[in-house]
Design brief:
Blueprint (H helix, E strand, L loop, with lengths): L43 E5 L5 E5 L17 H54 L10 E4 L2 E4 L2 E3 L1
Antiparallel strand pairs: 1-2, 3-4, 4-5
Amino acid sequence: MYPEHASRVPVQQAVEVHHPTPYPPAVPVAAPLVPVQPNTVPAVASIVLPDGRVVTGYAVDPARPEPVAAKPAVSRTAVNVALGGVGFLAVCGGLLLLTSFIAALTAFITQLIILAAVIFGGWIAVQILGTHDHQGGGTTVNIRRAVFKRNHFHG
């Protein structure tokens, strides 16, 4: 683009100064008056200001408020009470279902515990009362090296 070590001579330019031009004050142009016959003659009111000047003018009608919307057929309180009742019934139904679920779960766990006890008890009974071949098939009790076999002493 530009050579880096080129010498530049500052250029002087003419400066133009702009001064604002004031506008002449606006002269109000009176609109042509068209005579119109009013339906009724408005009341004229005069007010005396604290500095002694008198201001005269027509009275202005006060602003009328917007018409109030018609009330609904059902009051808001009744609607809130009804919605509260529906919510209360929903909560009660949910609690009833939760209680039923907990009761069913408790019964299921109890049945599992009973089933485990029956199976384990049966296994223990088979171990104790099961048939084993011990010298003729009788119950043998060893007490101090003496053998009792069905109430008969075998020494």
